[in-house]
Design a protein that fits this description.
By secondary structure, this protein is of the alpha/beta class. It folds into 2 domains: 171 residues, Rossmann fold; 76 residues, Trehalose-6-phosphate phosphatase related protein, domain 2 (Alpha-Beta Plaits). The chain is 38% helix and 22% strand. It has 9 helices and 12 strands. The strands form 2 sheets. Strands 5-4-3-2-1-10-11-12 form an 8-stranded mixed β-sheet, with helices on both faces. A 4-stranded antiparallel β-sheet has the order 6-7-9-8, with helices on one face. Strand 2, helix 3 and strand 3 form a beta-alpha-beta unit. The relative contact order is 0.18.
């Protein structure tokens, strides 16, 4: 039995079941402009249907919750942003208390990055509420872009104490808290008492969640792209050829659930 089928059977076997997913590169194709990232057509209907059939359907992203809410507000689907430091509640966005003290540092670093890099061809600064990211996917010379960005990132880390999180043609500066997608996923599993769980991701930031779901006896669902990092490529679990293939698996899962 292949890993995708094994995960599907486990999630349809009954009991308290959950599926947690990243957004970009998993439910939405990677785009040159992060602001244009959007769910593949029909994905919202599939997630809404799944949310009526299993205990937990959740999005867990490095994006701010406000972005997820604009792109994927779906009945009964949980939204967790900023690597779990934010979540959407009926009363609005709830921010983890330990994040509050680091907000001034993030704001100062964001201002510095805008000052140094705004207007540079192909480089884009993304303000992410509790973090800030520098993208260079659109840069005409990506190696030169890295040479330009690297010392600025290093200075920001040394001056303000933020933590570096590399990704696909992106460097993100995050709060140096003991919080990642792994701790967030363990919290989701514990809060709902999930007996069977799967996590879908595509990048380095998802590795802690993959490790957490495997440790919990669940299933890693790896959505591969052209620029997949080596440490993600070798994660044991079900591997999919891109968001479209993963959407088809979600549809199959939905059809198999009562």
């Amino acid at each position: 039995m292949d890993q995708a089928t094994a995960a599907l059977r486990a999630l349809t076997a009954g009991g308290s079941t959950g599926i947690v997913m990243d957004f970009d590169g998993v439910l939405a194709p990677i785009t040159d402009d992060p602001a244009l990232s959007a769910l593949l057509p029909g994905t919202d209907e599939i997630l809404a249907s799944l949310a009526r059939k299993v205990s937990v359907v959740a999005l867990l992203s490095g994006r701010p919750v406000a972005f997820l809410a604009r792109q994927a507000t779906i009945p009964a689907v949980q939204l967790h942003g900023s690597y779990g430091l934010e979540r959407l509640t009926p009363d609005g966005i709830e921010v983890s208390p330990e994040a509050q003290q680091w907000l001034p540092a993030v704001e100062e670093v964001a201002a510095m990055l805008h000052q140094e890099l705004d207007g540079v061809d192909g480089i884009h600064i993304e303000d992410k509420s509790l973090a800030v990211a520098v993208h260079w996917r659109r840069a005409p010379d990506r190696d030169r872009a890295v040479e330009l960005i690297a010392p600025i990132i290093r200075t920001a880390m040394e001056t303000h104490g933020l933590r570096r999180e590399p990704g696909k043609f992106v460097e993100e500066l995050r709060m140096p808290l003991d919080q990642d997608k792994g701790t967030a996923l363990r919290r989701i599993i514990g809060a709902s008492g999930l007996e069977s769980v799967a996590y879908a991701g595509d990048d380095r930031g998802d590795v802690p969640a993959f490790e957490a779901v495997i440790a919990a006896g669940g299933h890693a669902l790896v959505v591969e792209g052209a620029d997949i990092a080596p440490e993600v490529r070798w994660i044991p679990g079900a591997h999919f050829g891109g968001p479209e293939e993963f959407r088809s698996w979600l549809q199959e899962l939905d059809g198999a659930l009562p």
